[in-house]
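Render this sequence as a predicted structure.
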Amino acid sequence: MASGKFSRRRLRPQIKHALLLLAAAAQCAAAQPSTTDARAAGLATLEAFLADVRSLTAEFEQQLWNADKELLQTDKGTLALERPNRFRWIYREPSELTVVADGKTVWVYDVELQQVTVAPFDDSVGSSPAILLSGDRNVREGFDVVDAYKGDGLDWIKLKPKAAGSDFTSLLIGFEGTTPRRLELVDGLNEVTRITFEGLNVNPDLDDALFKFDVPEGVDVIGAER
């Protein structure tokens, strides 16, 4: 039981990052212009894909690697995202966890613990990349585009947050053509959260019900809706 709780504690900070890696991708087209050909090419690829993105769905595999390149945890699930500020991120394996945001409130439902944590959207995102989901935030204010290169068969663009004390030190977005296939976030401990996407669908029509959450009967609730 103790080891299970430890695993879930490790998962929670990764949820905060993972929910919003796509948010970063979904706003980065406005990021700071590059002065090198490689960076300009990376931005062009990014802009070509993101110019008209309003929603997306995908299956994902999320891995957490430590600084010694040891795999600590693997999670799988599905996601749906609609800008601004709405997402549904479901972890199905090995533990069931659902995170839903409707633009005002964030719900985190831990099936194993039979517990729902509720918080206002702005309080939940804090200074994390989650704020990038907001349509009124200009990524140029928060990120520098620092590199673009090819690797692992993908075209990569690298960004760094300008703000001191950020939850992460760099963000990488890997493209195959104009389709994002991988996102990688490096934190202050040099741990890497790597998310690989399959079956990504851009601009589907999504039901508003996806971004609503009804608290199951009989579960514990921490916090309150706004």
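Summary. The helical segments are 2-25, 37-50, 121-125. DSSP finds three helices and twelve strands in the chain.
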